[in-house]
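Q: Okay, next protein. This is UPF0256 protein from Amycolatopsis taiwanensis. I've checked the sequence twice, so it should be correct. Can you predict the 3D structure?
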Amino acid sequence: MTDFVVRPAVEGEQRALFEVLGRSLHAPPVDDERWEKRSAGWPADRKVGAFADKQPIGVASSVGTAMTVPGGKVVPAAAVDGVGVRADHTRRGVLTAMMREQLGDLQARGEVLAALHASETTIYGRFGYGIGTRSQDVSVSPRRARFRDSAPAGGQVRLISSSEAIELLPELYRRIGLRRPGMIERPQRWWSSQTHRMKDLVVAVHTGPDGDDGFVAYQPQDRVMKPPEMRIALAVHNLHGANTAAVAGLWRFLLKIDLVGEVRAFGRPLDEPLAPMLVDTRAWRVTDVSDELWVRLVDVPAALAARSYRDGDPVVIEVRDPFLPANSGCYRIGPDGAGRTDELPQLRLDVDVLAMLYLGEWQATTLAAAGRIEALQADAPERADELLRTPTRPWCGTGF
Ligand SMILES: CC(=O)SCCNC(=O)CCNC(=O)[C@H](O)C(C)(C)COP(=O)(O)OP(=O)(O)OC[C@H]1O[C@@H](n2cnc3c(N)ncnc32)[C@H](O)[C@@H]1OP(=O)(O)O
């Protein structure tokens, strides 16, 4: 029996919904001071609420953004950023009802994709989300990390204050931040939500031949400043460059800072080309690889039409989308683009699996071998790989 209602939140309900979210994520209660800091970044707009006896018991929030897709187009997208259900109301279908309401809202707004960072991998597949990007955490030893003569060099790095960072980074990110599939525009609200964090971070900017072209934000950790040990670790939370030279320049900077025993970087692209730049490749140690962005094709025809495809024989894919059935059907993808077709399918897959292929993270052959794709023609997975291949790994690089 449904004993709750799900509807868009209205003005005045924000704080109670924020509390529901916080509690579901085991955050401390929201006092006035904390709410003061967060309220501007938590408007009623784009919040779906669930209510039982008029009390809020669930929330699903999103922010409007845009995402780069393979080929370089940037499409309207939703960053789904706050989902929680009160612990005494879970497993009764509250999230399912909120997801239905939210996806309907995103469709109405004309958003082609939705994306989120999942707290658990078992939640979102049923709503059509699949792992669209993965990332790695690395630990680098500055003592061992010597760059080869062939590694990109040049450029300058300067430290800036947190108030300069608040001024400069939004514009810099706007110029350099959409270069890979999976990267998203950072709305002003995102930057505002980072303002209080920025004070704890050290920020450095890289300048290349065409001006500022990269930045890194890091934080000292595990401080040991007692002889004979004088060491800290640096935790890198954000490192973006317009090109490989800028990324390499920022890494060179981090790895030559005095008194640093380890540089830990979180959520880096899987194809960050740093290890092969080093004389001792084991100085670059991957400590974790995990799902980064879960992606949902909200409008499958528009999403497939927006990305580019490589040369190769076209493939007909049957997509099953029980949650948004209008997306279901057969699509022909080929070097000239993609669209609906009446032709017989050669591959059959669920919409969450299409999301795994869409940005180029996974190969159709891998997912067919795993039983996630049904190959109705034996060579169709290989042909799909050819068409969908991307020159760089997709990566988001923005937490939300
Ligand atoms: C983008 C983000 O914000 S990620 C953060 C997500 N939030 C959290 O992790 C906070 C803590 N957890 C919660 O608030 C809730 O448990 C939620 C939001 C994850 C799920 O809400 P619920 O209302 O319980 O989900 P709902 O009842 O609609 O479940 C739908 C299905 O998903 C399954 N499911 C839901 N949550 C989980 C989970 N954490 N692990 C495994 N299965 C799950 C249910 O068993 C159910 O399966 P069924 O359809 O086979 O019966």
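A: Here is a summary of the prediction. The chain has three domains: 5-116, 136-290, 300-388. Residues 24-25, 80, 82-85, 90-96, 116-120, 122-123, 126 surround acetyl coenzyme *A (CB under 6 Å).
Q: Noted. On to the next one.
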